[in-house]
Amino acid sequence: MDMNIETPEDQNEENSRRVQVRFKTKLKPPQKVPSNSIAIPSNLTRFGLSSVVNNLLQAVNPEWKSEPFDFLVNGELVRMSLEQFLLAKGISAEKVLEIEYIKAVAPQKEEEPSLHDDWVSAVDGSNPGFILTGCYDNLGRVWKAGGVCTHILEGHCGAVSSVNIIKSDGLKYVTVATASKDQTLRLWKFDAEELVNHPKKIRSFKILRGHKASVHSIAAETSGNMVCSGSWDCTISLWRTNDSDAAGNQVSIKKRKGNNQVEEPQLEGEAISTLVGHTQCVSSVVWPQQETIYSASWDHSVRTWDVEMGKDLSDIFCGKALNCIDIGGEGAALIAAGGSDPILRIWDPRKPGTSAPVFQFSSHNSWISACKWHNKSWFHLISASYDGKVMLWDLRTAWPLSVIDSHKDKVLCADWWRGDSVISGGVDSKLCVSSGVSIQ
Amino acid sequence: MRERKKSSAVEVSSVKKKKEKKTKDNNEPREQKEKEESQSIMKQQKNTTSRSKKEKQRKATEDYQSLRESELSGDEVHGTDHDVDNADDHHEEDQTDGSEGHRGVEESDSSEDEVAPRNTIGDVPLEWYKDEKHIGYDISGKKITKKERQDKLASFLANVDDSKSWRKIYDEYNDEEVELTKEEIRLVQRLLKGKAPHTDFDQYADYVDWFKYDDALHPLSNAPEPKRRFIPSKWESKKVVQYVRAIRKGLIKFDEPKEEEPKFYLLWGDDSSAAEKANHLAYIPAPKPKLPGHEESYNPSLEYIPTQEELNSYQLMYEEDRPKFIPRRFTSLRSVPAYENAVKDSFERCMDLYLCPRVRKKRVNIDPETLKPKLPSRKDLKPYPVACYLEYKGHKGAVVSISTEASGQWFASGSTDGTVRIWEVESGRCLRVLEIGEAIQYVAWNPLPELPVLAVSAGQDVLILNTGLGNEEEQRRVKDLLHVETPTAPDDNMASIVSWLQHDKLDGIRLRHFKVAFSPLSIFSCIFVLVLDLGLVEDHLLKNLLLALMFTLDGVFGRMASQGRLPLHVFHPTRSIFFVSTKKNIRVYDLLKQRLIKKLETGLKEVSSIAIHPAGDNLIVGSREGKLCWFDMDLSSKPYRVLKCHPKDITNVAFHRSYPLFASCSDDCTAYVFHGMVYSDLNQNPLIVPLEILRGHTSSNGRGVMDCKFHPRQPWLFTAGADSVIRLYCH
Q1: Are A344 and A353 in contact (CB under 8 A)?
Q2: What is the number of alpha carbons within 13 Å of residue B72 lying toward its C-beta?
Q3: CATH number of B378-730
């Protein structure tokens, strides 16, 4: 290890300048280096800096196993040699440079992909216990860690376009919603903890009809009592999710039809309200707070809806047909959206008077099909694209932190799972799980 | 003359006086009587003169002639002459003692008005009345009868008897005898003598200075003003003072040194400026001879002197390349020999001057950039399709035709491999594969979104197929529509042309067409496909319309079919107008009136595709030689613009439904996207800007891109390639 550090220094001794740096971190003590300043060659890249830090840690703690770090100068990740970075940002090298280091965010491990029968069109990893996927063979599937399929959601007569985990009653029962191209939404309930040897087929307990065209996207309210759906008929509909028992003791507008079928009763629901305003297909909806819904549409706009009033509050015009939207980041307020071009755009709606995106990430080569913020971190998000790549982004640099290239064809959906894994499904009918992403 | 006037002026008053006198004293003696007589005669005379002066004069002279003769002939006449003289004298006396005003009476012009002429025949010759009994008319219009003429003898005798007969004159005009008074005789005599007719007129009277009066204050003088009276001008002197001050202050400068003209001129300078000064018609200066340099010096520097090797190398050169002059050194100017080529050089120079072409070359100095039309920047015309992000793969043969669904969620494609595929736009997934079995020529999606029905032309059939999209209710309606009761009562007209059958394998209708003489893409198919475009899917309505169409267009199609060509066609988006292309022209039919409205002349070799602007007033036509014509229906039957862009055949052209875009695709494996803005203002011509060349397809069997269609709502373009791939170009 010593040798490793010495060699670059030896090499660059003659022809490189040195900068005085002080490393600091918010990491816990075993990963903390002494805070005195040291001189390092200015042409070190992230890898060099990482080895310097590892070396220092090893000097303190001989049992330290080296691990990759990422480095921040003035809140930006260092992505070239330190010298170039300082030049590019116009930072003086005369003073002692404070470099903050964090754990490098990159997936450590590719897990065995879970194979589907057809294209994987939707995935939801919001429950740490399982992964819910939607597929073009009209089925929804529930996967446990290790690629075990526990449940198959059977009932749609069109490709499942979007899935969403609504809530878990206690710990046992989980309610999920799926949207399909057969113009309906279905609600399902199953026991996630149930141990099964082979996949168990379940049927939906409620069918929500009302859309006049394929439903493209679904999102559940935080409490789980309502879902909203965006469709090709240019509308967003709001639905109640409560099943017959819950609905019995509360006054609801919903008209229920007890449609007793042979095996088990299936309920049908109607939309309690419809948000009209988009002029083209509503391709994606998110419902991050109780009172607001964000929607992205092919009419090139992102709209914010007030659920109570049923009106759109604001309208961000993008210029491209949008496929996906997500809310997150700083204060859970940034809007990330991608669409019919390779650029992932991030808007800050709190910024007054401008509708220009605050960040634009353009490393993809084709349409962006999905984007998701990390639910804890303010900086990290993933995007999936038709070029077969899933990229992990940090707002503090314009380069992707890492590119997951496990798919062979278009990636149609991607999500975080358990906070440290990236799950993605695509045209190659695989659900890929890349784990070991350490975001503190 | 002046006196005369004066006198007449004076006389006017005197006449009046005279008249008063006349009334007063009636008892005036003979004198007065005579006077009256003369007066009346004078009046008479005046009258006659006014009538026909010349005639009168002539007669008068005749009379006087005769008078003279008589004078010469007889004593009596003499005596009378005497008498006349006496009378004359007497009259003169009378004149002198009489009032001064008397003499003016005869002259007075107003005398004529006093007695009106008796005869009023106007200014016509008297001969006209020669044979009449009357000689004219009096003032009241009554005829004046001629007096009975005495015969010559009687009159002669009477003349002889009458001593006064010589005084009498016959007035033919008034048909009466006039006896001249003594006064008149005297007047005549004076005229004959060449004197002034009036005795009282003194030809040689003394000059009367009318302007002389005694108390003249200002004598009229022409003497120049004496200098002592000169008063100098105040303002001039002020001006002078001003000038003087200005000169003293140095504001006005005298004796400024003249700009010296250069005494020397640039001997070797260019003559061009001088040539311009010389105002000749087209003076072109002669070319200058080469100026002598250092090497021509008699004693050039050493470096100019060629060495022996160089001299030898000159010998190896071609004669033309050899230097004409080899510098040499001389110790002094004296030792310089005569220049052996002097004559030759000057001759050549003369020949140069004589033979060189003296023509001013006119060079038009135009920046080629300025000749380009001003087009807006491409950046301002966004959005338009730029890059290909999606490919739809699955066909095994060339994709011939594509058609998008109205909402833009799906599209269908037909291929030569005998399949129709239905694709999802957003994901690139092939939803359905419909095996037709024959090569597809055309697919068209029903423009009504509630009926997801697809029309396909394959072989000689038209198939109307259920796409299987939409919810259950829509599917039910589609099934109803596509159901055909098998033994349809043969419609007498339709039966001969087409039969409606249920498709045996797929869910749909097969329209079998029996007239097989036509080209593979039967007329019927194209009409039908476009009838579906119209959204007319009611069964009987459709049949009626088809019938109407068939009869309207039978002639056109028949002719074209005989040429072995495919008829191209397009419907007007809003009106019942139908466009059909012949080989070179586009015919426009009114479907309701069933007649030809207009004929558009493309000027192309062969039309290969047409498309109509969604507003309906503009049409684009692609041709086999790669030309694209834009027709403005309001402008003329000639193309508004012809774009030559593709090196190979254009296979298809398309308009965007909402964006101002149009595209053409060609066998050269490219698709061109243009901005085609049509303004609602009729005065503004459409704006056409080429935007982008979309590449990516590969050639297969010499065919490139077979079809292009715009996405109905997004500025995206689908292209179907002969390489069996469909590409989506996004903005």
Answers
A1: no
A2: 5
A3: 2.130.10.10
CA distance B431 to B420: 11
Phi then psi for residue B539, to 5 deg, are -65, -55
Give me the amino acid identity at B507: D
Report whether B422 contacts B458 (CB < 8 A): no
Token code pair at residue A405: 């290239």
Domain boundaries, given as residue ranges, for chain B:
2-193, 378-730
Nearest CA in chain A to B386: A341
Distance between CA B410 and CA B431 in Å, rounded?
A: 9
| Nearest-angstrom CA–CA distance, A105 and A381 | 11
> How far from each other are the two terminal CA atoms of chain A, in whole angstroms?
27
Residue A380 identity (one-letter amino acid): H
Interface residues on A facing B, Cβ-Cβ cutoff 8 A: 119, 121, 136, 159, 182-183, 212-214, 232, 280-281, 283, 298, 319-321, 323, 340-342, 366-367, 386, 410, 412, 427
Is B409 near chain A, with CB under 8 Å?
Answer: yes
Q: Is the dihedral of CA B610, B612, B617, B618 positive or negative?
A: negative
Give me B52's structure tokens.
Answer: 């026909």
Two tokens at B326?
């080899």
Q: What is the pLDDT along chain A (440 residues), one digit of tens a residue?
A: 333 444 444 444 445 677 888 887 777 777 777 777 788 887 788 888 888 888 888 877 777 777 778 888 877 777 778 878 888 877 777 777 878 887 777 777 777 788 888 888 888 888 888 888 888 888 888 888 777 888 888 888 888 888 888 876 666 778 888 888 888 888 888 877 776 677 788 888 888 888 888 888 888 888 878 888 888 888 888 888 776 544 433 333 344 444 433 344 567 777 888 888 888 888 889 888 888 888 888 888 888 888 888 888 888 888 888 888 888 888 788 888 888 888 888 888 887 777 788 888 888 888 888 898 888 888 888 899 888 888 888 888 888 888 888 888 888 888 888 878 888 888 888 888 888 777 76
Contact B409 A136 (CB under 8 A): no
- Please report residues of B whose CB lies closer than 8 A to that of A121: 427
Residues in chain B within 8 Å Cβ distance of A342:
389
3-state secondary structure of B727: strand
Choose the mutation target among A162, A216, A366 for the interface with B, i.e. most B CBs under 10 Å: A366
Smallest Cα distance from B387 to chain A, Å = 9
Among left, alpha and beta (phi > 0; psi -120 to 50; other), residue B456 is beta
Is the CB of A121 less than 8 angstroms away from the CB of B730? no
Cα B7 from Cα B100, distance rounded (Å)? 9
Interface ipTM above 0.85 = no
- Answer yes or no: pTM beyond 0.80: no
Nearest CB to B390; choose among A136, A367, A412: A367
**Cα gap B500→B149, rounded to integer Å:** 130
* A206-209/A266-269 β-pairing: parallel
C-alpha–C-alpha distance, residues B36 and B48, integer Å:
18
β-bridge partners, A235: A276
Burial A63-95 (b: 16+ CB within 10 A, else e): ebeeebbbbbbeebbbbebbbebbeeeebebee
Tokens encoding B498: 């087409």
Q: Quote the distance between the C-alpha of residue B608 and its chain's center.
A: 42
Q: Residue A279's closest chain B neighbor by CA?
A: B713
CA–CA gap between residue A163 and residue A172 (Å, rounded): 19
Pairing of strands A131-135, A120-124: antiparallel
Structure tokens at B65: 């002639």
How much of chain A is helix, strand and coil, in % rounded to 5?
10, 45, 45
Residues in chain B within 8 Å Cβ distance of A280: 408, 713-714
Burial of B420 (0-12, 13-18, 19+ CB in 10 A): buried
